[in-house]
Structures are given as structure tokens and as C-alpha cells.
Design goal:
By secondary structure, the protein is α+β, with helices and mostly antiparallel strands. The protein has six helices and eight strands. Belongs to the peroxiredoxin-like PRXL2 family. PRXL2A subfamily.
Length: 201
């Protein structure tokens, strides 16, 4: 969906086996001060479990990078990166669709970390227990006062938006422990059209 609101469902919605072998590609590096605002060419596919081999990881599955609340939530979470760095936790954003112009608009303005591409939407399916969870614009936004209020707040602080790309696939978040075999500590999925408020301090 294009606009996001609140209240994620916090539960183990997927077994670790559902995500360890997901094939992903890195679309961007982690942004460093002075780095040119360019997107690297896609790297060869890699197994998702390589991401958390050395350190635990948080993977934020983005509904759509042009979504105003997805941008606002991503920016808010990434602003806490120094805290996660101190804890030894990595942050990744996961997209289910690769539109280069959208990646460039999203990174690094709203998310300065590594952006991953899940072309088969396996992380998103795992959030739904094996199937994609979707919301439509009318029920998820137009008939949702909370979504409208959050949209207005994001707009008021200068977050921009567009309507490019698939916006009905719901996102969520995975917290994965360190190690070759890993462990799925928690997985959180959206309710209605939601953001990722679960990690606010």
C-alpha cells in the first residue's frame, strides 16, 4: 500500500527455515559521509543466511520505497543506527521490487544502510506464513483515520512520496540471531497498512 499507519503484529510468523535460503542481491552499500550518491550494480545473488553469519541482523521489509510512511519509518529506524552499532546489530532494508529510480530516491535520504532485493518475494511470503499479505488503498488508507493522521504527520515534516511500483504487498520485520545456522528471534508483520513502530525507543 502507498501509505502506512501503526500497530504491527508481533509474533513468530515464520520458521527460520523459511528465510535462511532466500536468494537476495545487494542494491546499495552502507552510506558513508562523502560517498557519491550512486547505486552500485547489483551484486551476484547470495544466500540470506550470509547476512547474519557474523552479527545479528534486523531486516525491514519495505512495502514500497515511495510510500510516505515507509520512508518516515525507515528514516526513524535508521536514525538509531548508533545504538544498534553499539549492540553489534546490523540493519538491512528489503525490497520486493527493483525500480532503480525508486532505490535512488530512497537511499540514502531515507535509509543509509544496505538495501537488498528479494526478487522472489520470499521474505514477504514468510511474513504471511507462505503467502503474500496484501491491503488495498480504500480499506487500508481512505477508511483508516490513523493512516490519514500518520500521513499528515509525515507530510508535515517534509517527507515526500510518489505512487510508483506495487504498493499492496504488506511489509514487516525480521530479527535474526548471529551464526551460520542463525535463529529467528522475532518476526513482525503489518496490521492494516502499517509502519515499523516496534523498535522505537
Amino acid at each position: 500500500m502507498w501509505l502506512c499507519t501503526t500497530s504491527p503484529i508481533v509474533e513468530n510468523v515464520a520458521p527460520y527455515s523459511a528465510i535462511e535460503n532466500v536468494s537476495i542481491q545487494k542494491l546499495t552499500p552502507e552510506y558513508k559521509i562523502g560517498m557519491e550518491r550512486l547505486i552500485k550494480n547489483k551484486t551476484p545473488p547470495m544466500k540470506a543466511s550470509e547476512l547474519w553469519r557474523e552479527k545479528p541482523a534486523i531486516l525491514v521489509c519495505i512495502r514500497r520505497p515511495g510510500c510516505i510512511m515507509c520512508r518516515a519509518e525507515a528514516h526513524q529506524l535508521y536514525s538509531k543506527k548508533p545504538i544498534f552499532d553499539a549492540l553489534g546489530v546490523q540493519l538491512f532494508a528489503v525490497l520486493h521490487e527493483h525500480i532503480e529510480s525508486e532505490v535512488k530516491d530512497f537511499w540514502p535520504r531515507y535509509w543509509g544502510g544496505v538495501v537488498l532485493f528479494d526478487g522472489r518475494q520470499e521474505f514477504f511470503k514468510a511474513l504471511g506464513g507462505g503467502k503474500l499479505l496484501k491491503d488495498n488503498f480504500i480499506s487500508g488508507f481512505l477508511l483508516n483515520p490513523r493512516a490519514i493522521a500518520n500521513y499528515k504527520r509525515a507530510k508535515a515534516i517534509g517527507v515526500e512520496l510518489n505512487f510508483k511500483g506495487e504498493g499492496e504487498i504488506k511489509g514487516g520485520l525480521f530479527i535474526v540471531g548471529r551464526g551460520k545456522s542463525g535463529s529467528l528471534t522475532s518476526s513482525l508483520r503489518e496490521t492494516l497498512v502499517t509502519g515499523h513502530h516496534m523498535l522505537r525507543s
